[in-house]
Design goal:
The protein has 494 residues and is of the alpha+beta class. It has 15 helices and 18 strands.
């Protein structure tokens, strides 16, 4: 029986410094985070439980230890909404709190955008005249470098990893028809010279392998990092690095909602073998065809379009949900999935209110036709980038949203609340509640523990190995009874 899909999104934001002669992205990212976090900077991230080199295939490479953000003194904070906000690879990164439903994750992902926007406002007051920082929720700097938007899903440890690879690879190759953020041209030197004026995905050109541990070089479609941030005997954390950073909420909803359903079917061994003959090649072929009519070859010799393969996944998901988990949340994902596939089948460009790659294509096409621009005109690359600006008064996506030209799923009042409050139904509620109520008593925290200093001989670590415990239902009474951290620790140990 498939387990619940607790999920989260980690987004590395693009950062630049217009008007800053010697721009340092690490210092700029730290400025954004520290100004937003305020006094919370004193609570350090707990690295003790982390093991990013452990491989799901059963080994852990022996490497010299690289300096961590903690060693370097970089900004790394836990927020009262249960999220992590820190510097990663010279980017500000926002990791949402754990969510139990796709819609909740959409809300908290959008809250991350607002937190970056607010950070810019606060940092602007500290910058010299004429200097500013810009932040983009995208995946490429236009100079051959890509940065990630990683999804994370709770997976049953008993599920063979080989089955995850077999059944998920084709899904990831084809889901970009609705998850792609859109991109003008190609950028990776590995595909230089390809005749691709516009493509579905920003990340695809940077992927070179089917399976592997890397996240920055030779990126694989299936990442094998085995760092569960939960009970390792029961769970895996599937670390997904293949997705784009989405602005459109429908695209984010479909990205995590459909992937969660496919993972449940994999756990229940409810999918046929849809393996591809050359998954990396197929990944590029799908992204490079905005008509979504390109065919890919399966290992059994068949050929099919990405839309046709997504219909197969949807048909299996409908049957699985009816037999195993007929819930309103699943029904909503299935209904939206079907509606978008119908649109892609009939007229892909009709989905400009739902999908980023279509909304951006429409914008770029309008500028091209108005100004007579060629696809390789630098102005189109600027339009591409400006679509992702997190500032609501500057970003082109936000102008579409403000005029009702893209569909919103997350009302703004919910997004504002998610900037301060964690989800009620995951362990993020406990983490965020502790940060909000007892900040002076917390020494460190991570996804699966909070460490308190309550004036005793030893620090007190509170483990959180079960992602669906520590919810409002589980701990709200404890919070009401605990006026201070020492009382909370005693109640938990009692």
């Amino acid at each position: 029986m498939a387990i619940p899909k607790v999920m989260g999104i980690e987004t590395e934001y693009g950062i630049s410094g217009p008007g800053i002669s010697e721009f340092n992205p690490v210092l700029a990212s730290s400025l954004l985070i520290n100004t937003f976090a305020g006094a919370l900077r004193r609570i350090r991230w707990d690295y003790e439980q982390e093991s990013p080199l452990r491989d799901a295939r059963g080994f852990e490479p022996v490497q010299e230890r690289e300096p961590t953000e903690e060693d370097l003194g970089l900004a790394n904070v836990i927020l009262p909404n249960g999220a992590r906000y820190y510097v990663d690879h010279a980017h500000p990164e926002y990791s949402t709190p754990e969510a139990a439903t796709p819609r909740d994750l959409v809300v908290h992902d959008k809250a991350g955008e607002r937190i970056l926007e607010r950070s810019l406002e606060l940092a602007r007051e500290l910058l010299p005249p004429g200097e500013r920082i810009a932040v983009y929720k995208n995946n490429t700097d236009g100079k051959g470098n890509s940065y990630g938007c990683h999804e994370n899903y709770l997976v049953d440890r008993a599920t063979p990893f080989s089955r995850i690879v077999r059944d998920l690879t084709t899904f990831f190759v084809t889901r970009q028809i609705f998850t792609g953020a859109g991109k003008v041209g190609v950028e990776s030197t590995r595909v230089e010279g390809a005749n691709v004026p516009y493509q579905l995905s920003q990340r695809t050109d940077f992927f070179e392998a089917e399976v592997g541990l890397e996240t920055t070089l030779k990126r694989p479609i299936i990442n094998t990092r085995d760092e569960p941030h939960a009970d390792p005997d029961r769970y895996r954390r599937l670390h997904v690095i293949i997705g784009d950073a989405n602005m459109c909420e429908v695209a984010t909803y479909l990205k995590v909602g459909t992937t969660g359903l496919v993972l449940k079917m994999i756990e229940d061994d409810a999918l046929p073998d849809l393996s591809l003959d050359g998954a990396v090649r197929a990944l590029h072929e799908v992204s490079w065809d905005p008509t979504v009519r390109a065919t890919v070859r399966l290992a059994d010799g068949r050929t099919a379009t990405a839309v046709e393969l997504q219909w197969e996944y949807l048909d299996h998901a409908k049957r699985w949900a009816k037999e195993q988990e007929d819930t309103p949340d699943n029904a909503a994902v299935l209904e939206r999935w079907e509606r978008v596939l119908e649109g892609l089948e009939e007229e892909p460009l009709s989905l400009h209110r739902e999908l980023d790659w279509v909304a951006k294509h429409r914008l770029v096409t309008a500028y091209r036709e108005r100004d007579g621009l060629a696809w390789d005109d630098p102005k189109l690359a600027l339009i591409d980038l400006q679509y992702h600006d997190v500032r609501r008064d500057r970003g082109l996506y936000h102008r579409l949203a403000a005029s009702g030209k893209v569909e919103r799923l997350a009302p703004e009042e919910e997004v504002e609340r998610a900037m301060r409050q964690p989800p009620d139904d995951t362990r993020a509620f406990f983490r965020g509640g502790c940060i909000r109520r007892y900040p002076d008593a917390i020494v460190a925290a991570s996804w699966d523990s909070v460490i308190f200093d309550v004036g005793r001989e030893a620090l007190q670590r509170v483990p959180m190995r079960e992602p669906l415990r520590g919810t409002r239902d589980h701990v709200s009474d404890l919070f009401e009874r605990a006026a201070d951290a020492a009382t909370l620790v005693d109640l938990l140990q009692g």
